[in-house]
From TrEMBL:
Major subcellular location class: membrane
Protein name from the UniProt record: Sugar porter family MFS transporter
Entry's localization field: Cell membrane
Transmembrane spans: 7-27, 47-68, 80-99, 105-126, 138-160, 180-199, 262-286, 298-321, 328-348, 368-392, 404-424, 436-455
Source species taxonomy: Bacteria, Pseudomonadati, Pseudomonadota, Alphaproteobacteria, Sphingomonadales
Amino acid sequence: MDRVEINARLVALVVAVATIGGFMFGYDSGVINGTQNGLEAAFDLGSLGIGINVGAILVGSSFGAFIAGRLSDRIGRRGTMMLAAVLFLVSALLAGAAGSSAIFIIARIIGGLGVGAASVTSPVYISEMTPAEVRGRLSSVQQVMIITGLTGAFLANFVLARWAGGSTATLWLDFPAWRWMFWLQAIPALIYFLALLGIPESPRYLVTQGRIEEARAVLTRLFGAATAQRKVAEIEASLAADHHQPKLSDLVDKATGKIRPILWVGIGIAVFQQLVGINVVFYYGATLWQAVGFTEDSALQINIISGALSIGACLIAIAFIDRLGRKPLLLIGSAGMTVTLGVVAWAFSTAVTGADGAVSLPGNAGLIALISANAYVVFFNVSWGPVMWVMLGEMFPNQIRGSALAVAGFAQWIANAVISVSFPTLATTPGLSVTYVLYALAALVSFFFVRATVIETRGRELEDM
């Protein structure tokens, strides 16, 4: 594709707007981190109850991802993202106002539907609207925005808690700070919805609907008339000869009667991204560090540091993903996470309980745990964090992209739920070490999985997948 024909301004606009979905994904996922003391006090929750309230978003996310993959083939990529924005807004208002654990869980499930929808639709939309030679870099912005959303939530939680004197202390209008942590999310949710009104629909979706002239018009705005004409023909040629409208049954190879192997690879990539335990840091960071002796204020500050390091790591990924490739970054990440998770497990194994019942890490173990945990976060965000979303958005053929993402996205969020809901029960202080050993083993296995199954997609057109 001729670089000079690219409408850089429009490409930048669609990426910027679509990745607000990533910001909302991150914010809605991270806002729970720092509110758990408030939830426990307001709803009288034990460790299992906290796990269920925290994990409720993941139930919604798994179904949101599955539904959105297919829904985006019916109402479009942009239409699905607009629906996600509405769900984010409703969830923010309802979660903050919840008077019981049951209402809070419902609110978080609604938010989860939005998270799941945004998580699979935004990467697909970006992949379908950007040129192959820079697709990896532009798609990686999604992960930057996810981490920015997480960090934004951490920062907002820290400021509100500091302002009020604690997450359970009263803030404005006689409501505790933890409720305002949820209500604040309504602002970016509204911005997301309004911004989506200003960008076009994916041309690849339009072709599947037989709306050829609309697709050609969008491609002409993006890449010029000559390229648009050729690209429409290529998209049509990449779709099934007997039907253009994608179906879930397209995931089965008609020649063999079996699930297409590429789908299993996508599911594996999606699941391993969660089995390494990254969302334990994002969902339970404050609780985790308090469990080994840090104060609430210090734990919230550590969350902010982790978020800032994550953004820096994502920027490194953006610089190298279209040069080095997707597969090498995944391998580097798996190796780095295996080592750093192992060190974290060792540090937590040294925890001691004092006469007053307080838990602490002796000697330099606390500092080692802190450095290793943040190194692990860096390795994740320079590799599996952005690369998984890039690959899921580009690795599947046009005919099955929506359906394959529905299945892979569902699997990713189910794995997320298993890890996140189980953590409070597994991670009593003596169990923290064993838990992190399991995450380290998952990282090790992921290295061999990538080496054996993943095919490099750098620089390939979507129609060639």
